[in-house]
């Protein structure tokens, strides 16, 4: 499923298939912190301006909006070794400052793309397991209409209490 701003990818992790939906958002003003399960920030290693833009957006989401969602910082175009202007150390430093995971990729060479997708899904599952352990803990809780409602809407009084207690 694709249109100009969204893309959907199926990922198999630990024997369970999930669909990751990506929304391409360029302006930090149009990004709300609560509507996404994770944020993936991609910059080009041969473009310092793209790196600086990503760093500003990460800061805005994490510190100004208080987002607690997983952050993944992606250094792309690592195949352009001679044109590289942003070092791995700079990328890792920014990732560390904003509590983000860091990975280097090359879409052209399809280098580390599968690892990136699996890593995104893993970070989302880790975060959901911390917030909603009884929903993600047992496979039996996923069966039936009530389990479906919990998965889709995350509705239960216990879950609401967990969300409140996370920030204490």
Automatic annotation (TrEMBL):
InterPro entries, alphabetized: P-loop_NTPase (IPR027417), RGK_GTP-binding_reg (IPR051641), Small_GTPase (IPR001806)
Domain of life where this protein originates: Eukaryota
Pfam families: Ras
Keywords: Phosphoprotein
A single cellular component GO annotation: plasma membrane
Signal sequence range: none
Record keyword Phosphoprotein present: yes
Sample GO molecular function, one term: GTPase activity
Family named by the database record: Belongs to the small GTPase superfamily. RGK family.
UniProt protein name: GTP-binding protein RAD
Organism: Magallana gigas (Pacific oyster)
């Amino acid at each position: 499923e694709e249109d100009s701003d969204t893309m959907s990818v199926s990922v198999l992790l630990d024997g369970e298939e999930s669909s990751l939906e990506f929304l391409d958002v360029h302006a930090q003003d149009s990004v709300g912190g609560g509507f996404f399960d994770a944020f993936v920030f991609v910059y080009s290693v041969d473009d310092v301006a793209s790196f600086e833009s990503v760093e500003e957006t990460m800061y805005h989401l994490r510190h100004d909006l208080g987002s607690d969602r997983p952050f993944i910082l992606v250094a792309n175009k690592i195949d352009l070794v001679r044109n590289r202007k942003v070092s791995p150390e700079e990328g890792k430093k920014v990732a560390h400052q904003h509590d983000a995971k860091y990975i280097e990729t090359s879409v052209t060479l399809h280098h580390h793309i599968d690892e990136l997708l699996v890593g995104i899904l893993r970070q989302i599952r880790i975060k959901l397991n911390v917030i909603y352990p009884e929903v993600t803990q047992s496979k039996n809780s996923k069966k039936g209409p009530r389990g479906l409602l919990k998965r889709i809407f995350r509705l239960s009084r216990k879950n609401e209490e967990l969300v409140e207690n996370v920030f204490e």
